[in-house]
């Protein structure tokens, strides 16, 4: 539950309120991660309170509605320490929609594969240009710029992969095209049942 632990990390710097935690998270992590939904944040805080990692107290304000302040407990600090200092291990396999797209395009033949590879390559090149501009604008923020550098490295790796995909998957695409030709030597398409067949 990485967002739960990120909230513990924010509270490690001192007690705070929900909206302030949201703003601090978005400032610390930067735009590459994306915003933190306030409703989701309050769900996380409720769970952290229930688990004993955070306590909740009410702060009375004279001219505004009362606020709820969240404070890290000693159990929460121990949980954060265990999570933050342990190595990250991928547990769900390596899933990326690109590989499903490559599978789908390969099953349609060489032309579809080339079309996908060209479009995906252009997308990655555009992403790299945008990330490079973003990196320049966040050069003074070490954590944000590190996350942007990671995004750049991932995108470069994806670009390298897609650059080799057409060549490496060409035999698969050719076999798919050949199999379709053998199955339908006249190139007839199945347009579904006719009116006479009870469409």
Brief overview, please?
The protein is built from 7 helices and 3 strands; from the N terminus they run αβααββαααα. Helices cover about 65% and strands about 5% of the residues.
How much strand?
5-15%
The Rg value, from CA coordinates, equals 26 Å
| Major sheet summary line | 3 strands, antiparallel
- The gross shape turns out to be elongated
* Spatial sequence of strands, sheet with the most strands: 1-3-2
**What is the tally of helical segments?**
7
Low-confidence stretches: 188-199
Structural class: mainly alpha
Please provide the ordered H/E string of secondary-structure elements: HEHHEEHHHH
Question: Would you mind describing this structure in some detail?
Answer:
The protein is mainly α and 199 residues long. It is built from seven helices and three strands. The protein has helices at residues 2-11, 18-29, 38-50, 74-84, 97-108, 110-137, 142-183; strands at 16-17, 54-59, 67-72. The chain has a three-stranded antiparallel β-sheet with strand order 1-3-2. It is elongated. Residues 188-199 have low confidence and may be disordered.
